[in-house]
Amino acid sequence: MRVQVERRHHGSIIVASLAGELDHHAAQAVRTALDQELTGRRRVRLILDLSEVTFMDSSGLGVILGRYKKVQDTDGEMVIAGVSKAIDRLLEMSGLHKIVRMYPNCETAVVALKEVAK
Amino acid sequence: MNATNEMSISFTALSENEAFARVAVAAFVLPLNPTMEELTEIKTIVSEAVTNAIIHGYQEKYGIIYLQCKIMGDKMELVIEDHGVGIEDVDVVRQPLYTSRPDLERSGMGFTIMESFVDEIEVDSAVKRGTRLRFVKHIRSPLSATRYEV
């Protein structure tokens, strides 16, 4: 699994793009990579871009839920972009649908988070 | 009904084998012409069961996972077994959001997902003996359905 992190909107929005299969094997590396970006920050605005995730199971749900809690602890907001039908089904089953905002792609998520920052 | 085709594999309980197991089963069931959605469900079931064996059954220590898959008409039967620590109370672990390993950020959704994606599920477990999960899933797509590469 590949994790690419970039900053948008003058560095105030973190976009983490995941690509590949998010299972238990990949989970620890993804967790470490994302937590590096969150540590010591306040009011983190994180976009988790899942548009290139080709497979995900409950280990992926654990990673997403864990990052959601960490971002909440910073008084920030995490949103998810580019969810496939298969991943959407898992998010719905877990109840994440109700607590995390979803956007069809990264660009719409950036626009939405810019609005929050205003 | 007798199995028309069957395969079995055994492999070390290592997380890098999760992808191997789900791709092996997905490739094996391809003659049933599953849809992309059914294929994803099958891969997810395998992934959940193998991950459970690694994390909970063998507690991330050395062990062997036994996987058997049979095709019987339009349905597949899948058995995934470990000889690890076993489950004390199966009803408890089947509850949504239950996890015995919150330290690993487990979501506790594994069993719920497996139950949603199959037609039948049987859990046979004994403490210090191991756990055997048996699934039956009907492949409902017509034979003319498009085939997919895995």
Commentary on this structure:
The complex is a heterodimer of chains A (118) and B (150). Chain A is globular and about 35 Å long. Chain A has helices at 24-38, 58-73, 85-94, 96-99, 106-117; strands at residues 2-8, 13-22, 45-56, 77-81, 101-103. Chain A has a single domain (2-117), classed as 2-Layer Sandwich (Transcription Regulator spoIIAA), CATH 3.30.750. The mean pLDDT of chain A is 93. Chain A is α/β, with parallel strands linked by helices and 118 residues long. Chain B is of the alpha+beta class and 150 residues long. Chain B has one domain (5-138): Heat Shock Protein 90 (2-Layer Sandwich). Helices cover 31% and strands 27% of the residues of chain B. In chain B, strands 1-2-3-5-4 form a five-stranded antiparallel beta sheet, with helices on one face. In chain B, helix 1 runs antiparallel to helix 2 (36-57) and helix 2 (36-57) packs antiparallel against helix 4. Chain B starts with a strand and ends in a 12-residue tail after the last strand. Classes of the chains: A alpha/beta (118), B alpha+beta (150). Chains A and B meet through helix 1, helix 2 and helix 3 of A and helix 1, helix 2 and helix 4 of B.
Q: Which regions of chain A contain 5 or more consecutive residues with pLDDT less than 50?
A: none
Instruction: Give the helix proportion of chain A (percent range).
Output: 40-55%
Q: Major sheet of chain A: order of its strands?
A: 1-2-3-4-5
Mean pLDDT of chain B: 90
Taking the alpha carbons of the first and last residues of chain A, their distance comes to 34 Å
Q: How far apart are the first and last residues' alpha carbons of chain B, in Å? A: 28 Å
The helix/strand class of chain B is alpha+beta
Count structural domains of chain B.
1
Count of strand segments of chain B: 5
Q: Which CATH class of chain A applies here?
A: Alpha Beta
Shape designation of chain B: globular
Order of helices and strands of chain A: EEHEHEHHEH
Form type of chain A: globular
Tell me how many strands of chain A there are.
5
Number of structurally distinct domains of chain A: 1
